[in-house]
Design brief:
This protein has a two-stranded antiparallel sheet with strand order 1-2. The chain has a two-stranded antiparallel ribbon with strand order 3-4. A two-stranded antiparallel sheet has the order 5-6. It is mainly alpha-helical. Helix 5 crosses helix 7 and helix 6 crosses helix 9.
Length: about 250
């Protein structure tokens, strides 16, 4: 089953999406179409414009060449990295689930989706999760790890979820749902591993301050009395300091 699916998986899917966006960018700037002709709109889909279920994927990120080129570069960097890590089939499914969830949100709540920003945000979250220490240059100058950008982005998304409009909330939920569908297991194990690591660290710190040898009579130990010699009784196996060991009746 999986082998058959792998045969129909689209390799270099990110590149095809970018090529589609470049063609749409040229057509929009030439006046042949507008971005609204590509938007996801179920009232128009029900009239027969079925291409809109997918065409929102190729809505360009902007109308200026510089912004668009930068966006395409970032999208290619993240998308191709994910495809290389997962394989074409897994990556195709990730994009497909995002598209399906976006279509469901659009259909159920009569939303017009004139951007693929939220779908690309889903790609960004996946890339940042798998490559938290990947370094980028903020404003082309300041080196920063992508995990910090992801955290800042998460805060912005949370703000939008609380205070944003219904459309933004639903599309963000679709984006996050897609992410959690594919990464819930990894997130669980990361939280579990981190919790175990913290527990072990605390245990190590506690044991570090716990004495190894402690006299049964006077409670001297190797921490508060580091120069004291300690010995163990061969019969009862209790520990005694050099001052009380000779008075111990079991000592042989």
């Amino acid at each position: 089953m999986i082998k058959n699916l792998k045969k129909i998986a689209v390799n270099n899917l990110t590149m095809y999406i970018i090529i589609g966006q470049i063609i749409a960018f040229l057509c929009i700037n030439s006046g042949y179409i507008t971005s609204s002709n590509l938007a996801l709109n179920y009232s128009l889909i029900l009239e027969g414009q079925f291409w809109r279920t997918l065409s929102f994927l190729i809505i360009p990120p902007g109308t200026t060449p510089i912004i668009s080129l930068l966006s395409w570069y970032i999208l290619y960097l993240m998308g191709s990295n994910l495809e290389h890590y997962w394989g074409a089939l897994h990556y195709n499914l990730y994009i497909l689930v995002a598209v399906i969830l976006t279509n469901i949100a659009s259909y159920l709540f009569n939303l017009t989706v004139g951007t693929n920003y939220y779908l690309q945000s889903s790609i960004f979250l996946a890339f940042a999760f798998l490559n938290p220490n990947f370094q980028v240059r903020l404003f082309f100058i300041i080196p920063i790890k992508i995990k910090w950008i992801a955290i800042a982005t998460g805060v912005i998304y949370l703000w939008a979820l609380i205070f944003g409009g219904l459309g933004a909330k639903l599309l963000l939920i679709a984006s996050f749902t897609n992410f959690f569908i594919f990464f819930s297991k990894d997130i669980y194990y990361k939280i579990k591993y981190r919790g175990k690591r913290i527990k072990n660290k605390i245990s190590t710190e506690v044991n570090k301050n716990r004495p190894i040898h402690k006299c049964k009579v006077c409670s001297k130990n190797d921490i508060n009395s580091p120069h004291t010699d300690f010995r163990y009784c061969s019969t009862c196996e209790e520990c005694f300091c050099d001052e009380h060991i000779n008075n111990h009746t079991h000592l042989e």
